[in-house]
Amino acid sequence: MYRAELVNVKETQAALLRLADTVMDPVEDALERGGKWVVYEARDRLRAQIRGRYLKHYGRSISSETERTAGSVTMIVGPETEKLQGGMGPGVELGSVNTPPKPHLFGAFDARLDSILDRVGNNINRWPA
Fold it and tell me: Model pTM?
């Protein structure tokens, strides 16, 4: 025979529901900072691959932003197409028939992912509730 006793179920449910709201600010902060890190990393990687006049404006078109909606925070990093040479992003990253790829965005994100996740964890631990 087994016996189970449920204690504080409603309190635990309420705490879990509050948790999503509680972590939104620290997560947003970490993603805003992390997006900047990814931008700097991507620009550095690109700078090492280009020389002279080719793509001289493209690096400045790379930016980051966070978007917060109900229950989620999204970090977007990449070239802004309305900026000078910003529309060239896919061709620069992945290459084209005429030019080899110059990978900079995906690798930059991968290089900064652990530091972004660390910041999320540290923020959640320190953030005022």
Answer: 0.81
